[in-house]
Specification:
Elements: H1 35-46, H2 67-72, E1 77-80, H3 88-94, H4 103-128, H5 134-159, H6 184-201, H7 214-227, H8 231-242, E2 266-270, E3 303-306, H9 308-313, E4 315-316, E5 334-335, H10 339-342, E6 343-344, H11 365-368, E7 372-373, E8 385-386, E9 392-393, E10 397-401, H12 402-415, H13 419-434, H14 463-478, H15 484-491, H16 494-505, H17 529-534
Antiparallel strand pairs: 1-3, 2-10, 4-5, 6-7, 8-9
Helix pairs in contact: 1-4, 4-5, 5-6, 6-7, 7-8, 8-12, 12-13, 12-14, 13-14
Length: 546
Amino acid sequence: MVGATLALTFLGSCSKDFLEEVTYGEVSPAEMTKAENVEKAIISAYSVLNGQIDGASNAYNSPASNWSFGDVVSDDCYKGGGGTGDQNQIHQMELYNTTPTTYDVERKWMALYEGVKRTNEAMKLLNASEDFDATLKIQRTAELRFLRGHYYFELKKVYDQIPYIDETAETVADYARSNTEFTSAEIWSKIEADFQAAYDVLPSSQDEVGRPTNLAAMAYLAKTYLFQEKWQAAFDATTVVMGGNYSLMDDFQSVFLPENDNGSEVLFAVQYSVNDGQGSNYNGSIGDRLTAPGGPYYAQYGFHRPSQNLVNAFKTDASGLPVDDNIDVTETDFVDPRLDITIGRPGIPYKDLDILYEDTWARDLATYGPYGPKKRILSANSPYHVTVWPYVDALNYYIIRYAEVLLWRAEAAVELGNLEEARTLVNQIRERAANSGYVQTLDGSGDAANYSIGTYDAVWTDATDARDKVRMESRLELAMEGHRFFNLVRWGIAKDVIDDYLEVEKTRRTHLTNAAFTQGKNEYWPIPQEYIDSVDDGLVTQNNGY
């Protein structure tokens, strides 16, 4: 199933004709508007969803999963790797010492604007094509607007004040635009318009898995509203999504298996495949290849390491509700069962490998502690796991999954005063976790830890308390999926949360000694200096503090 979906450069199995991309240079300009070549240009617009542009092996500097941009700079993760000098630019990001020349800042910008450029160019070719099926042309245009909405959404949440270029751009110079030409609200409205246009046209299902549906577009529109605190609009958009065929899978752990990664819970994903004939398996999760956890079955790249703070967040009381005390979890503490599905912990079985995770797996244990990623790491027994360099697998990256939609609705419900609906939605997610399979001891005699997870049974009457509970559930459910930092920023609590995190975490991890979050600056990344230098003097305004 995985190899037959739209994935990366070829967007799937190389055995499918529609996946065989031809670059512009291989056909004459007059040939480009032929239907088959227009389709290839559209596939090219999909192909940068994974973050790779001019070299797949360094897609980890612009990962689709945002593990460095969304997790490492939050309270959820450390950079990891072979010490602070290994990918030092990510270490500097972790310390909030990012600059306009930071390599990853430049690469992320380049990858996302490459996506914008390809969607714009494909739109123009599609419009100019005379032999493209008229009905399909309307659908493909909607797909391209969805993709452009995605690329601009990512740019907006990472860099905030960005240049906006649409399909009217004709030359390279048209991409050298001011980032203050449009206000923040105007940019958001353009992103909204793309997702709305996609929703209005796209079908409810696609024969080729990986292309967006109408409800995927509506879900993304809900997320766009959420980032602007348009609570009623976000709530209404989730109503539409929840009226469709998407739902939570029964088992939390099963969500993160390649055989299920286009299942009922996944609204839109970056499609990955391996063993499909593409060199070095670059159609796999190449942006995440540094996250291999070590041990006897995996390479020891050792990046994307869970923080002690995140581990502690999974602690529960005897009734199974969160205990947010930031005190280190012990063997006797109750913990949310999602902890050992999300994080590799010493003494706990790892996947289905009949082996306990050990702290010796962790590269540079003294600096980054004993924990490793687990949720989005495939079992070494999986046929979709590749052991040779580079370490990649075929587990898709989920841009939007249904659990997020429920959490967004819960957020909006709190802000609209519907506290009991928010409680019901949070309990729905907690009930799924409670009814999922728990990690077992190696001999199968029982649970591997003291798992306890319960629902909120008392009526919610206080909006501040309800808001905190929804946000905690978002952290637990979505941990290690690249969302945490962006959520802290849009909630307006990044400074407070990260300051509290660093105050304690610096006593545990000396590599954070010089970390300091500056409010009004570190919520967003700087505009790359390379872009500023490439356009006319004074045309680009650098973000505050850089």
